[in-house]
Backbone:
C-alpha cells in the first residue's frame, strides 16, 4: 500500500509542465478610492491603471487660449465609474513608485479602456512587461475612436496642449 501511494505521488510530481504555462496573475479586489485619472487605492494599496496615462490632477490644457482642467476632468470621470465601488484588479507589474500596475474591472467593465474611450487618457504601452496579457488592440481602437470623435483631450486637435506647473 505504501509503495502504491509513493508510486502515485512520484508519478504526479513527474508530470510535465506545459510549455509557456505560468501561474495565474495575482489579483487585488476591494472598494476603490480614486486618487487621480489613472490611480486608485484599494485597501490602502495604490494601484496604477495599466496601459494608460491621464493628466495629473493639477494639470490643465489650453484650448484656443482657454484653460481646461484635464486632470480634474479625468479624476471626476474615474470617480463616477469606480469610486466606492467593488473592483477586481489583475496585477501586471509594480512601478518605480511601488504602486501595483493592474488592469481593473468594475462589473466586468475595464476601467482603463473606459477612460481611453472617453478621451480622457492616452495609451501608454512602453512600460508594460512582455507577459502583460492585455488586449492592447482594444485600447488602440478606443483611442482612435476618441480622437476621431474629438472626445476629451482630443477635442480640438492641434489646439490642445498640456500645461505643466
Residues:
Amino acid at each position: 500500500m505504501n509503495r502504491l501511494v509513493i508510486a502515485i505521488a512520484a508519478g504526479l510530481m513527474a508530470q510535465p509542465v506545459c510549455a509557456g504555462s505560468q501561474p495565474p496573475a495575482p489579483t487585488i479586489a476591494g472598494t476603490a478610492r480614486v486618487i487621480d485619472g489613472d490611480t486608485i487605492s484599494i485597501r490602502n494599496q495604490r494601484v496604477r491603471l495599466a496601459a494608460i496615462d491621464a493628466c495629473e490632477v493639477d494639470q490643465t490644457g489650453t484650448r484656443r487660449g482657454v484653460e481646461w482642467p484635464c486632470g480634474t476632468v479625468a479624476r471626476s470621470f474615474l470617480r463616477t465609474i469606480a469610486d466606492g465601488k467593488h473592483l477586481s484588479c489583475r496585477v501586471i507589474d509594480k512601478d518605480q513608485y511601488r504602486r501595483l500596475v493592474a488592469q481593473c474591472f468594475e462589473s466586468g467593465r475595464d476601467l482603463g479602456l473606459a477612460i481611453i474611450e472617453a478621451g480622457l487618457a492616452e495609451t501608454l504601452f512602453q512600460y508594460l512587461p512582455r507577459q502583460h496579457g492585455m488586449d492592447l488592440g482594444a485600447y488602440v481602437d478606443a483611442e482612435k475612436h476618441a480622437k476621431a470623435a474629438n472626445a476629451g483631450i482630443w477635442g480640438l486637435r492641434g489646439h490642445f496642449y498640456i500645461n505643466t506647473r
